[in-house]
Write a structure and sequence with these properties.
This protein is α+β, with helices and mostly antiparallel strands and 259 residues long. The protein contains 5 helices and 13 strands. The strands form 3 sheets. It has a 6-stranded mixed beta barrel. Strands 6-9-8 form a 3-stranded antiparallel β-sheet. A two-stranded antiparallel ribbon has the order 4-13. A hairpin with a 4-residue loop joins strand 8 and strand 9. Helix 1 packs antiparallel against helix 2.
């Protein structure tokens, strides 16, 4: 920090026209003031970062409505738990509970920002167990579990969300796969109908740009991004907003139709 202030003083003190000493002295004094302000600002920013890091942490949550009540590693605010209660109760939301959390009104939807951006992408909604989520993040999406030897996707995030809701007690998940004409997935991409597409090849994990899951943690339904941290499956809050359904982006691709 001292070096930064000295550099700023040096830059500010050198005038393009090499002003007279009185002018340089004045500029130096002003730069010193700005340097002090900069130092204070950086200090405040560093303190805020520390405070933010302390304000949230990874905690174990117990999915109390899933068989065997499995544990998940989730990033949550420290304020939601006490020192003597390290494991938080959480639930998987399906059916009406899921719909109420995602669709507050017919024309509104809570979506992670990543599911409604300009990046050409396809979405696949799934109901998954914890092991399945980690498996996809590690190995990608294979064809071995598909009866048709192809993977079905939608170019509409809203439709994928519908498919993520299952009658069984499974975690609602949406997988986002970026697709461009340069992608290795392009040759096997086919159009079916109603913005539905198929990919007839396995999708390596590196092609999965995002994987989000909807969970109720500490009584609040939130979208989380599923990631691997040091090889451990971890859920971090995904930036989310309330969209009008008419504002949702629908991606379309010029590829052969599958009959």
């Amino acid at each position: 920090m001292k070096k930064l202030v000295v550099i700023l003083l040096f830059i500010d003190c050198i005038s393009p026209a090499f002003a007279q000493w009185e002018g340089i002295a004045k500029v130096g004094a002003e730069a010193a003031g700005r340097g002090a302000e900069l130092t204070a600002a950086v200090t405040r920013k560093a303190a805020a970062a520390v405070q933010e890091a302390q304000a949230s942490a990874f905690r174990l949550v117990r999915l109390i409505n899933m068989p065997k009540e499995p544990l998940l590693r989730v990033q949550v605010p420290q304020t939601v738990i006490s020192a003597d209660d390290q494991i938080i109760s959480a639930r998987v939301l399906n059916g009406a509970d899921f719909s109420e959390g995602i669709f507050p009104q017919d024309d509104l939807i809570h979506l992670p920002l990543t599911l409604n951006d300009a990046q050409p992408a396809l979405y696949r909604g799934l109901g998954l167990k914890i092991a399945d989520i980690k498996d996809i993040l590690t190995k990608g999406m294979g064809l071995n579990k598909s009866y048709y030897q192809k993977l079905f996707f939608s170019s509409e995030a809203e439709e994928a969300v519908f498919y993520a809701d299952k009658e069984e007690v499974l975690i609602p998940v949406v997988v986002k796969v970026n697709v461009t004409p340069e992608s290795q997935l392009w040759p096997s991409l086919r159009l079916r109908a109603n913005n539905t597409y198929t990919i007839s090849q396995e999708i390596p994990a590196r092609f999965i740009s995002d994987m989000v899951a909807f969970l109720e943690v500490n009584g609040e339904g939130v979208w989380y991004k599923a990631v691997l941290v040091d090889g451990e499956l971890t859920f971090v809050p995904a930036p989310t907003r309330l969209f009008e359904t008419r504002d949702l982006i629908v991606h379309r691709f010029r590829v052969p139709r599958e009959w």
